[in-house]
Amino acid sequence: MGIKDAKPSVIGMTDTEFRTWEKTHQTDAWKRSKSHSLPKPYNKRLDGFDERSLQKQVNELLRSLGVWFLRVEGSGKVISTSMGQRMIPSAMMGAPDNIVLMHGEFFAAELKAPGGKLSAVQKLHLDKIREQGGNSAVVVSGVDGMKRFLSKATPIGFIEKIPVY
């Protein structure tokens, strides 16, 4: 890998500069990667369910439980934590929406509204977390799903070995 191909430091780069660099350096495998549909009955969009409103409800649940958590959005900007609002830049595309530390255990949840799709890079992150001994899952049923995930209840389904709650 030459100097041109080395990943630049994110510090000092704007989000636009980083995204431009990332698009020009994606591998063919990345470009061919597919998204993964949610299991039935969550594979169809439902009126009144959107990720933003579900995320607000999940944030309220996590605050009420008094656990440490981090909410990551899009390019890595943290919009809500257990300690209030924070903004932290990150270069980790596809990172799980919610990172939770509860009773010494690590949980990573990708929140999806019914009908949403899990991208290949999101699946990759969830797989890596599980390989390293963490708990990772896709949460499609908002607060109830997050409660079941944090209590390690039986999932409602799977996306290629990733539990869905």
Characteristic terms for this protein:
single chain, 165 residues, Trna Endonuclease, Chain: A, domain 1, two-stranded antiparallel ribbon, 5 helices, 23% strand, disordered N terminus
Report on the structure:
With 165 residues, the chain is an alpha+beta fold. It has one domain: Trna Endonuclease, Chain: A, domain 1 (3-Layer(aba) Sandwich). Helix content is 31%, strand content 23%. The strands form three sheets. The protein has a five-stranded mixed β-sheet, with helices on both faces. A hairpin with a 3-residue loop joins strand 2 (68-73) and strand 3. Helix 3 (51-65) packs across helix 5 (142-150). The protein is globular, with a radius of gyration of 17 Å. Residues 1-11 and 27-32 have low confidence and may be disordered.
Order of helices and strands: HHEHEEEEEHEHEE
Instruction: Give the CATH topology.
Output: Trna Endonuclease, Chain: A, domain 1
Name the average pLDDT: 75
Largest sheet: 5 strands, mixed
What level of helicity do the residues show? 25-40%
Short characterization:
With 165 residues, the chain is an alpha+beta fold. Helix content is 31%, strand content 23%.
How are the SSEs ordered, and which strands pair?
Elements: H1 15-24, H2 28-32, E1 36-37, H3 51-65, E2 68-73, E3 77-81, E4 98-102, E5 105-111, E6 117-118, H4 120-131, E7 135-139, H5 142-150, E8 157-159, E9 162-164
Parallel strand pairs: 5-7
Antiparallel strand pairs: 1-6, 2-3, 2-4, 4-5, 8-9
